[in-house]
Amino acid sequence: MSGGAGTRLWPLSTEAKPKQFHALGSALTMLQETGLRLCDDAGLAFAPPVIICSMRHLDEVASQLQAVSIIPSAIVLEPLARNTAAVAAIAAQIVADQFPGALALLLPADHVIQNPAAFRAVIGRAAATARKRIVTFGIEPDRPETGFGYIQRGEALDDGVFKVSRFTEKPPLALAQHYLDEGGYDWNAGIFLFAPTVMLAEMNAHRPDILKAALSALSAASREGVVIYLDHDLFAKTPSESIDVAVMEATALAAVAPCSVGWADIGSWSELWRMGPFDGAGNVTRGEVFAMDTRDSYLHADDMTIAVVGVSDLVVVASQGAVIVLPKSRSQEVKALLAGVKALRVADKP
Amino acid sequence: MSGGAGTRLWPLSTEAKPKQFHALGSALTMLQETGLRLCDDAGLAFAPPVIICSMRHLDEVASQLQAVSIIPSAIVLEPLARNTAAVAAIAAQIVADQFPGALALLLPADHVIQNPAAFRAVIGRAAATARKRIVTFGIEPDRPETGFGYIQRGEALDDGVFKVSRFTEKPPLALAQHYLDEGGYDWNAGIFLFAPTVMLAEMNAHRPDILKAALSALSAASREGVVIYLDHDLFAKTPSESIDVAVMEATALAAVAPCSVGWADIGSWSELWRMGPFDGAGNVTRGEVFAMDTRDSYLHADDMTIAVVGVSDLVVVASQGAVIVLPKSRSQEVKALLAGVKALRVADKP
C-alpha cells in the first residue's frame, strides 16, 4: 500500500511526493526499503510485490522499484483514494488470481522496520494461523504512546499468535500507561497476513458493498503490462472505509501476532528525531547543518544550509523552498502550518 | 563610505553583497536611501556624492545609483579594505580638488536615518563650527546600549554644538545606564562634517603616515570617467586605522553635534526586529511568512516560505540558500555561525 498522501512531514513530504518516496534515515526510500525487506529468506518464498498507489505516482513507483531491481507482479493505480478496505479487497483478489494458494501480506510502504529478519520470522510463525484467520501484527509497546490504536490479546493460538480480544481507539495518556503496565496490549501497526479466500469471505460477510464495488472497479480496469488502471467511476463509487473498521473489528477471525521488530510509523518530525542517530548533544541532523550550543533538536536541510545557535527541543526542516520551525512537542501542528501557508499563497494571488 | 563587508546580517548580507546593497525596512537599498537623504533641502546645497567602495562592488554601486537617478561626483574603488582613516584622507582630498571651499560630510552607506529632515537640519546647524573643527554627530541615546562607543559633551560652542570632552569605548551595561542617567553622553555614529583642509592638517599632525600613503594611492590612481581606481600596491601599504583612533581621539578640534534623527546602525537581526513594524504579537515579518502562536520574533524569508508555530523571541532568516535560527538575545553570534558553516563547507570538499 503506497497510497499515503501524508503531509505530516511537510515540507519534505508533499502530496506530489509523499513520505514513502523519500529516504528517512536510510539511503533508500521507504518504498524501496519495504520492497527489499520482503525478500526470500528464512524459508519464506515471497512472490514479487503488488503495489497499490495513486495514479499520479506511477512514474515515481516504477523508477524507484527499478532502481533496486524489484520487478512487481502488478502496479494497481487508484484514480482517487478510497481507504484501506477497498485496497484489501483488490489485493486479495489479485493474489488469488495470480498466486493461487498463496497468503497475502498487506502492508503500508511508509513504515520503518529496523529488524527485517525479526519481521520475516514473525510472518513465518503466523503463516499457519493465517490460513484460517486474518492475522494482524501487534507491536509490543515500549512507551505509553497515544498516537496509535491498541489491540488486546485474547486466547492463545499457535506459535505466539493470539485471538484478538478487542481493538481500542487511540487512548489518552493515562490509559496508554495502563495498557503498558498491564501488558497484553500491542500497537495496531496496520499490517495484515491472510488467505485471500478468508479476506474475501469476511468482507463479503461484513461489507459486501465495499467488496462488490472494489472488485467491479478491478474487473473493469484497463491493463498495460503490469499496470492496472482501476476504473475511475466504479472505484469512485466504492465506500471509503478502513480495513480495521470494515473487517477486523467485525470478524470473529481476527488474530494478533505480537512482535518487536523495530517498527515505526513516522507520523511526525518528533518521531523521526526519536529514531536518531544522535550527536553528543541529542541532536539529529541531516544535510548541511551547523549547530552551536543546541540540544535535542531535529535539524534537516535539503538543498540548503541550516545554521542554528542556542536552541533546544526544536524542529527545523528546510526542504523544497520552505522552512518550518517549531518545538518538537508541537510536531502535530505541521498540518495546520501547511494549511496556513496554502491560504497565504491563495491570498497572495488576486 | 560603502565599503562595509558586514556579515552580521548573514545570510542576507554576504561579502559579495553586504547590507548597504539590500533594502532593510524600505523599498530602496541602504545605499540608495543614504544618497537620497542628502538632497538639496532646507537651504543646504549638496554636491553629487563621492562613493568609496570595494572594487568588487562597482557594478552594484553604479546600477543602484542609476536606478534612483543619482549621478556621483566620483566612485573611488578600494582594491582592498584599509579602514576609515585612509578613506577620510582620500575623501578630503577629492572634495578639496572637486569642490573648493565646500565642507565634506563623511558617512557610512549602511545606516538608517528615519528622520532625514532632522538630519539635514543638524548638518546645517553644525556647518559654521565645521569650518574650523571636525564635527561628529552624536546620537542622543534612548536606552543603555552596550554596542556603541559614547561621546561625552564638553564646552558648548555655537548652535547646540559642543567640544568633545572624551570618546569612550563600548561600555558594560551598568556604565551605559550611568551615561544615560547622567546625560551629556551621545552615541558615536561615525558621521563627520569638516573642511577638507582641517581634516588634512589634523591627519598630517597625528598620522602623517596614513595621510601620505593614502594620498599617494590616490595620486597614482587610474581614472575612467567618474571611476577612480586606487593604486593597489600603494593603498596596500596604507596603515589600516579608524578615523576615530587616528584623528578624532587625538585632535583638539573634535566637536560633537548631538541630535535625534532616528538613527540606527543595524548590526544584528535583533536590531532589525526592534525597528518593526510589528504585528499584533510583536513579530516582524518580511516575505512569505506564516506564524501561529508566535511572539516577539523576527521572521525573514527571501525566495522561500517560512512557517513557524509555538516560538517566541526567535530569529529565523532564510536567504540565498541558507537558514539561520537563533534566539534574538544571541544575534551577536551570527558571525560565529557563518564561520562554522564555512568550515563545514571546506571540510565537505576533500
Give the helices and strands, then pairings.
Two copies of one chain form a homodimer.
Chain A: H1 30-36, E1 50-54, H2 58-67, E2 74-78, H3 83-98, E3 104-106, E4 112-113, H4 116-130, E5 134-139, E6 150-156, E7 162-167, H5 173-182, E8 185-194, H6 196-206, H7 208-219, E9 222-224, E10 227-229, H8 232-236, H9 243-248, E11 254-259, E12 263-264, H10 269-274, E13 284-292, E14 298-309, E15 314-319, E16 322-327, H11 334-348
Parallel strand pairs in A: 1-2, 2-10, 5-11, 13-14, 14-15
Antiparallel strand pairs in A: 3-8, 4-12, 5-8, 6-7, 6-8, 7-11, 9-10, 15-16
The N- to C-terminal Cα distance of chain A equals 39 Å
How much strand content do the residues of chain A show? 25-35%
User: What's the story with the biggest beta sheet of chain A?
Assistant: 5 strands, mixed, barrel
Biggest protein-protein contact in the assembly: A-B, 35 and 35 residues
Structural class of chain A: alpha/beta
- Number of helical regions of chain A: 11
How many β-strand stretches of chain A? 16
Radius of gyration of chain A: 21 Å
What is the N-to-C succession of helices and strands of chain A? HEHEHEEHEEEHEHHEEHHEEHEEEEH
Mean model confidence by pLDDT of chain A: 94
Quickly name the level 1 CATH class of the largest domain in chain A: Alpha Beta
**Unreliable stretches of chain A, pLDDT < 50, 5 or more residues?**
none
Fraction of helical residues of chain A: 25-40%
Going by CATH, the architecture of the largest domain in chain A would be Alpha-Beta Complex
